[in-house]
Amino acid sequence: MTRRRHPGPLALAATLAALAGSAGCSAPCSADGRDHRARTPARPASCRDLVVGAALQAEVDAAAEGEALCLGPGRYPGPLVLERRVAVWGPPTAVIASTGTGTTVRISGSGARLLGVTVDGSGGRYDQLDGAVSITADDVTVEGVTVVGATYGLLAERVHRVRLVGNHVVGSRDPAVGLRGDSIRLWETDDAEVADNVVEDGRDLVVWYSRKAHVHGNRIERARYGTHFMYSHDARVEGNRYLDVTVGVFVMYSNRVELRGNVIANAAGAAGIAIGFKDAGAAKVIDNLLVHDEVGIYLDSSPQRTDEEVEISGNALRLCRSAIVFHSSSHRVVIRANDFGGNEVILRVDGGGDALADGWDGNYFDAYTGYDLDDDGIGDVPFELRSYTGVMVAQHPELGFFSGAPALTLTEAAAHLDPLFKPRALLIDPHPAMAPVAGKAGAAGRALEN
To answer: Which domain covers residue 380, as residue numbers?
Structure first.
């Protein structure tokens, strides 16, 4: 067991701010100093201008197929329904406002587009999914839209090829996270793209019963689930940033999900998990940076099938309380070329099992005390993780309360000194790296420690 290396509070705050992409910004900025504006799309080339006071719904109903309507600044009373292939564009100062009941904008026309405007508010019914924007048609685009004050944010149900791009969704900020609505929700929605959105203070980003979702380039902060997959296969999660969430990405009952190049920082609390799998198969976790999380990677009955494996490679796991946790002894998990540095516990196997059946190979462990006489960058003796207290805590989780206390520290030291109490191995890496090996994720992780 390695000793967790904590950065100072100012260094950690700067680290988390950097991971969130905080830089100087021009107005409007949120209280944390970041520019959270939606990415306003270009005004359509051919567009009929509307001004405040126009009967918006009547103008939309009268629009020809494929026509674009451009809203001027001001507030337009909702609700609004787009029933055909039309585009509604406006600057962020063009606000479609809820009357306080129901969903504010419904899009039921295939190929319709909602661009650039602000949607303010919705009804408050959870059972009816009252939200800012509800999509029930194929090939719909919602781009550059700002959502504030709504129970749910952007919802798509039983559709195909929806694009949710460059939006800014601000949740209710209710202190009870479970009472907030989902910021983005895909339900039986195939081939969806969720890209470059900023999502704050909502509950979950949900992808359920949906195939081939591509979730990339988003920044998600202060949520319960950054992205939650359920029965959703062939998905890609790439280049997202998750900060101050309870769970970064959790994959349940879904196959062939790939997580690549994501940053997940400060997934905290008793249930904090950066990346988790439950009854999932054929998953890939590649080149991710996991920093200061309660649990880095959690696996429960994954993979499911004997002809599948889970690949965990090229990741940097830094300053986590437990870098990797298996719910029980695991099989067919390949763990190679990852960097483990500054974690309190490298591996925990609940129920007292081990990870000896997995393919640990070529990982860097800051706890490795071996040597490299032939100077090939690979340790000449295997890395063996043996932890007497780790086994005790796995069998009796309540002992985790005493983690770092003198009693457990002395127990661990005595077990290593007295051969009669030699701890059994939890993992063996036959070719440990002498220096960090992960690519961009590892470089970023090392920079955070320097």
So the answer is: 239-387+423-450
